[in-house]
Give the backbone structure.
Amino acid sequence: MPLFHRRDLHETEERSDDPFCNPENPVKITFEEITSAAYKIRSGIKNTPCEFSHISQLTGMSIFLKKDFLQHTGSFKERGARYALLKLSDEEKSRGVIAASLGNHAQAVCYHGHQLGIPVTVVMPLIAPIMKIQKCREYHANVVIEGKDMAEAKQVAFKISKERGLIYINGYDHPHIIAGQGTIALEILEQVPDIDAIVVPTGGGGLLAGVSVAVKMLNPSVKVIGVESERCASYSQAMANGGPTFTPIEGTLADGLAVPEVGYNAWETSRNLLDKLVVVKEEYIALAILRFIENEKCVVEGAGACGLAAILSGQLEEFRGKRLVLILSGGNIDTTILGRCLERGLAADGRLVKCRVTVSDRPGGICELCKMVSSIGVSIKDIVHERAWVASDVFSVEVIVVCETRDYTHSVQLRELLQSKYKKFEFENFPNEQSLVAPFTQDLFSMP
Ligand SMILES: Cc1ncc(COP(=O)(O)O)c(C=O)c1O
């Protein structure tokens, strides 16, 4: 049955422009294609480490991290990009290729195009971060900045592709892209024995499709788990509706996963192989990024941190005591965004807290509050006070204090202290204990 869940005619026209991604005739990627991709790309792609993680202690699982953010351009996208480029005919190679992307796919195609001497054009929307445009230019690509968003940039790319006879390479649904992404699973299965599950960040579904084909062929008992952000949950929508469905996207820390509709080939390939799909909230993605930096010294972008976010949000509890591989799919995160993520992560962890306290407005009232906070070793990061809109008497002032604490228990101590002294007091958005993963102290996991 053809799967029609498309938004409108405009979308239909866009799809029919890509002969490799035909909704009426989706392609299932085979295991043989993945092994062939692995052979072809072996000299240009790193076999990245898959290492036992310190995070195991925190989660009560044996966790291994497949560090594909260590690829040259910082993401796994190079696997598919290189394979798709290598599969072109000589004539196609000399004409060149075109892609529309905001991020990792663009960088991967530009870098490998340059390596292989294939001209690359990428179309990026006007909103593309200057850093990413710059990176693609460094790889000698022809960068076209046009369109207000990705959908418009894609239309521009299709137009140029037709005019100049360039092959359009979809970053998650081109069959060669999917086959290339699947090579990561071959490496994982060689690197880690006795795996119980592999957790895969999911956007357009190309990585998930490639991984599930390889895993289910080589070791069907290994569970394949997809993870997406609740702000771009297009794979869950596809599952709910029996096929790719347009899903409006909201801003997310996992911008690499922000694809409004999963690929038709990716869906057709993965839908019967996937064991579980987890949808995570943004605060867990922020917390996961923070944990990777603090515990692993790894800078991982939001999309790449989703696997850990799934664990931290308590959605993979059935794997306590089991062996899990998390794919750290990318590390390209803007420094400004990283700063914001860390603050959000600290807040989600109960280590950055905001309290609203009404204190005496007589001399020394605010000073007394500050002394009390510092008496237990909590430091004040920010403090503002408010007089005009305070409902209590005119001799009171409302103070908003942002504090840094050592950990959640320290914050609870602060709350108890302030509660004992002040009548009007509240902590804003303080996480409850259940939402935090308690450290798992058993020494079960000292050995991989
Ligand atoms: C870092 C990262 N992780 C995961 C994904 C998801 O891959 P896919 O779109 O094939 O599902 C992407 C996609 O761009 C990505 O950049």
The domain at 78-168 is CATH 3.40.50.1100 (Rossmann fold). The chain has three domains: 31-40+47-76+174-344, 78-168, 350-435. The longest strand covers residues 352-360.
